[in-house]
Amino acid sequence: MDLAEGLALVRLAPDRVAARELSGAIEAAGYEVRVAVHTAPCPPDEASCQRVARALREIVGVLDVSTNGGATTTVRHWDSPAVAAQVQRALGNPGGRREEPAKPQPAEASAWTCRARWGCLGACVSLAAAMAHRLSLLPSVDSRLLETVAGVASAAVVVGAGLPLFVEACRAVASSHVTYSVYVVLSATAALLYSAIVCGLRAAGVATLEPDAYFDLAALLVAFALLGRSLTER
Prior knowledge:
It is a single chain. The chain is mainly α. It has helices at 19-28, 46-57, 81-91, 106-134, 143-161, 163-174, 180-204, 215-232, and strands at 35-41, 62-67, 72-78. Helix content is 58%, strand content 9%. Helix 4 packs antiparallel against helix 8, helix 5 runs antiparallel to helix 7 (180-204) and helix 6 packs across helix 7. The protein is rod-shaped.
């Protein structure tokens, strides 16, 4: 205890005492507990925000953690450099500021650009074949041939160029985190499978109606996703 400064130094075992209980005991003894308030932006998704809040509550010296509707995280903690450093580490970086996204590697950005180019090319081929079939632009060409061209081009885009999106979607589902890749993959796969089933029923003579195949839609979904990804990776 420093009578000149009016300060008391308390040593504690972190696994034996709670920050609130210790603060209450110190205040009950007539001393003032110095408290600091730290505010930082929440992560963009709710799950990450809650994980950060749980990590903050486990820090010895943290008195209260509140999230303002997922917008900001406010932490009340002991005014201690050690506690402040732990709080900042839990929030992600010193000062509570968002870390700047890592710059993509040139090889990775180039790979996404190449996939986007092939995806757009395949989507254009699939769309051209589908429109030629629907509008009867090439009456001398068999409609099944046009559908086959559209289907092959679409499959090349979805399964070939779009394979990294499938990998990202599987990882996101495994970690219970839904991203735009999941929506793109589900939509494109549904359109591709539906179109393949329709064409199969036509070839077998089972289908009584003439529903449209949507090979071009599946290809366009993946092509647009690849194009957007290539732009963000630059």
